[in-house]
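re the bet — no i am not wrong, look at it urself. input seq straight from the record:
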Amino acid sequence: MTSTSQSPTAAPMRQFRDAMAAVASPVAVVTAMDGDRPHGTTVSAFASLSLTPPMVLVSLDNHSQLLAIIRRTGCFGINILGIHQAGLATAFARPGADKFDDVIWSPSANLPRLPGTTAWITAEVDEYITAGDHTVLLAHVRAAEPGKEGLKPLTYHHRSFGTHTPLNT
């Protein structure tokens, strides 16, 4: 038997992270209000779940302050970012309660909405599912608005931001 300095799960975890880095993911800022104070965080784990009824899913860290706020309020907004908003994605990915400092936003359905996004969705949580170190929120869409036509989406792939380029067929 050989000795290693890594825990038994370190290699599979690293390999899993590397494998998931090969998947291009959309990037959004999920937002909620805590009284009159806006909160938000960058996510790449969100998706359309159902068309009938319209539903989305979002995954948030179990220790996230945003998750605690959403558990109290029951609703959140999804600001789906465009390629021109990589700076916002980075700013909202860092820890701290001051992410909205110097960020332009407006209330929409009593939720913080960022301008210039490729789409805006408001949702009300139907179910919380704890899964590992995250909680998956299954939520009913209350409103959805596409952004300005022609905006390219922000994606995250191989640990860097980019966008989708259609294939010429």
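see?? The longest strand covers residues 119-131. told u. also Confidence is low (pLDDT under 50) at residues 1-5. so pay up
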